[in-house]
Every structure is written in C-alpha cells, then in structure tokens.
Amino acid sequence: MKIDGQAALVSGGGSGLGAATARKLAALGAKVGILDFNDAAAQAVAGEVGGVALKVDVSDAAAVDAAIEAACEALGQVPRIVVNCAGIAPAAKVVNREGEPSLDVFDRTLKVNLYGTYNVMSHATRRMVALEPLETGERGVVINTASVAFEDGQMGQVAYAASKGAIAAMCLPAARDFARSGIRVMAIAPGLFHTPMMEGLPEEVSAKIAANVPFPARLGDPGEFAQLAADIVGNAYLNGTVIRLDGAVRLPPR
Ligand code: NAD
How far is the centre of ligand 1, averaged over its atoms, from the C-alpha of 180 (Å)? Predict the structure, then answer.
C-alpha cells in the first residue's frame, strides 16, 4: 500500500518506537493520529508531524473506541494503517521477594500490552472493513509490536514475555480472520532499541546488552523500527508473520 495520502494510527506514538514511526509515516505523506496516555508527549509529536493527538489508555476498550472515532473525524478519513507501539515492561519474578505471586504486575502488563493491542486493532479494523478496497485489493494493514522476549524472555520477564508471546501468536489467526477483507496483520519483534524504555537501565546494563548483539553490536535505532513498519505497509505480500528486528541477538537468561 502506498503510504502517501493515507491516514494512520500509532498507539504509544508519544515516545520511542511509536514516535519514530509517526515521524516516518508522516514524512512519507500520511496523516497521523497518535494514541497515547501521555498527553503532553503525544501533543508534542503530533505538533511536529502535523497530526492529531488523542489521550487514551489503550487498556480501556470503550475509551479506545471513542478515541479512534475522534481520530477518524479529525483526520477526515478512516485510517488504513495501524501501528501498535503502546506498551510497558515491568520486571517481576513469578513469586516476589515477599513470597507472594506477582499477579498485579502480570495483570497490568497483560492489560496494557495484550488487551491494549487487541483493543486498538479491533476498533480500528471494524471501521477499516467498511472501506473500499484499494487497487491492490488491500483495505488496510495492522502492525503489532511484540518483542524478542516472545521467544527468549529473560529472568523477571514472565509477564512481559507472556504478553508479547500472545501478540506474536495472534498475528497469523488475525491475518486469517481479515483475509477476506484485504487487511494484513503483521508483528515486529524488536531486539533492544535505544528508547526511553531502555534509557531507564543503568549504563553498565545497557552496555552489556549492546555487547551481546552479534552485528551491529549496538542498540537498535528507533528509525530502523520505523523503516521496517513503512516497508511492511509497502509490501502487500507480507502477512501473518512475526519479523525479528534484532541484529541476530538471542537474549541470555539474564
Ligand atoms: P516507550 O516507553 O518509549 O514508549 C511507550 C509509549 O507507550 C509511551 O509514550 C507511553 O506513554 C505509551 N503507553 C504506555 N502505556 C500506555 C497505555 N496504557 N495507554 C496508552 N499509551 C500507553 O517504549 P518503546 O521502547 O518505544 O516501546 C514501544 C513498544 O515496543 C512497547 O510495546 C515495547 O514493549 C516494545 N519493545 C521495545 C523494545 C526496546 O528495546 N525499546 C524492545 C522490544 C519491544
């Protein structure tokens, strides 16, 4: 699908991978709606790219529906491109230091990462299916963000890996669900990228992580994620699969 002239939704577009994707899609001619619960960050990126910002918690299905409705109105068209980047990465072992299950962390992580992705995907695609197909037969494309943790989750990443494993697992059945509507569903599983999520780590930890990456031995640049998202939109034969974008890294246990 050509990006120029389309509308796009980017969840988590106020920061990191989402912000880079919003910038890339806008540079390629899309009108971008940014869904993020950090209103100031979303407004700043929207202002920069000439898009619109919608403050929303993606784990709240009704609020997502309302935000997408508002985005459609503000953008003047139903978005055919959806990139889900909103997410959180708290660390917790299955049983915490007090000997209790870390159910609160598990619950919150699944609600934001998995249900949030499902909410944006479902409320965007239910509008997309009513659009006229493009000359390629496509009505739209959804790109969800997993993580390499879907295959090699580290110690303390049970909740995060479970959420990202589910995002990876739903890619193929979702693509099958929407095949008759001409909507593609893809997932990107990033390795370790230089974003505010990673900047929270101590310097020595992030240096150790970078040294584990075979080539290039550095953290990924958010622009490289955005480039892949744009390439997925542009390539109509990519569907129903998860792409690892990781410099060949395989995460060690810790
Ligand atoms: P980030 O923290 O820089 O950005 C995440 C954005 O999501 C923020 O703007 C935040 O406000 C928003 N957000 C969080 N919870 C939300 C909610 N409930 N509702 C609406 N918005 C919400 O993180 P990032 O590094 O850009 O990560 C983006 C995605 O990529 C996440 O899903 C993350 O798990 C995934 N990922 C990141 C890396 C990495 O190395 N940075 C690696 C693998 C996967």
Answer: 31
